[in-house]
Design a protein that fits this description.
Number of strands of chain B: 7
Order of helices and strands of chain A: HEHHEEHHEE
Order of helices and strands of chain B: EEEHEEHEHEH
Helix content of chain B: 40-55%
Low-confidence stretches of chain A: none
Strand order of the largest sheet of chain B: 1-2-4-6-7
Oligomer: heterodimer
Structural class of chain A: alpha+beta
Strand content of chain A: 25-35%
Low-confidence stretches of chain B: none
Largest interface: A-B, 28 and 27 residues
Chain lengths: ~150, ~110
């Protein structure tokens, strides 16, 4: 194991609250996951979750408005990778995080298919731990993926 | 977003030419695909071979397209990478969309 992996590492990124910049976060997360020997599909799915988390902040905390900072910290250890997404916007309703794709829909009934609220259920399906908290005026969404 | 369209009989093959089909690309995709559907193209094969990233906003755009087509047409997917395909299962949409390995296979399925 490399010394870097043994002691863990931390990468910090600050982006503006624009959807265009979420891709940068995703690409860095994918690179870190690949460095940690995650397979291609797993690395892609963790990248997807990081992008969904950032998009969620832009959409809900900052109401789609650019010009606000979104801070992302990517911590990696031999056993896990943790992604913290921090913002100073509106707090996310607590029930939002628990949202699962529990709505019944009939695959053959196109009118019943959901077009919104797909991001958080995807995060919940991929990540091993998901937590959300607000301290002072700062929101923190933390995603943990255990390494196999 | 740039879509490249070709006709194969009564089937329209639409190739998505952006690598990231995400919150940025989804609104343009919806506009462009709506024009195709409005002009009567309702049997669509979406070629995703150039797409290396699809997020929930891109997926929502595909669901929206399926609804716009309604019951008198169909939208199937072709050429997607395993990574991109995995989001359909995560979002429980793997039973909604028919996903084919390549475009000729998808065209055959819609033509029959």
């Amino acid at each position: 194991m490399s010394p870097l992996l043994a002691r863990g590492s931390l990468i910090r990124i600050r982006i503006d609250s624009r959807f265009e910049e979420a891709a940068l976060v995703g690409m860095v997360v994918n690179t870190v996951c690949t460095f940690l020997h995650m397979n291609e599909v797993d690395a892609y799915q963790v990248e997807l979750c990081a992008v969904e988390a950032v998009n969620n902040v832009i959409r809900h905390s900052y109401h789609g408005q650019a010009g606000h900072p979104v801070d992302v910290a990517i911590h990696s250890w031999p056993v896990q990778v943790r992604i913290d997404v921090l913002d100073r916007g509106s707090a996310m309703p607590s029930e939002e995080l628990k949202h699962q794709l529990d709505r019944d829909y009939e695959p053959t009934d196109r009118s019943s298919l959901p077009e919104r609220g797909l991001g958080i259920p995807i995060i919940n399906a991929v990540m091993d731990e998901v937590s959300y908290g607000r301290s002072k005026d700062r929101n923190r969404l933390s995603l943990v993926k255990l390494l196999k | 977003m740039t879509l490249e369209t070709t006709k194969s009989g009564n089937v329209t093959v639409v190739k998505v030419l952006v690598p990231r089909f995400d919150a940025v690309a989804a609104p343009n995709f919806k506009q462009e695909i709506a024009k195709l559907i409005e002009r009567g193209d309702k049997l669509l094969v979406l070629n995703l071979s150039e797409v290396n990233f699809l997020d929930s906003m891109g997926l929502a755009a595909l669901i929206s397209t399926l609804k716009l087509i309604g019951d008198n047409g169909d939208l199937v997917l072709a050429g997607s990478r395993l990574t991109v395909q995995s989001i359909f299962k995560l979002a429980r949409m793997d039973k909604v969309f028919r996903i084919f390995e390549n475009v000729p296979e998808a065209v055959r399925a819609l033509s029959s």
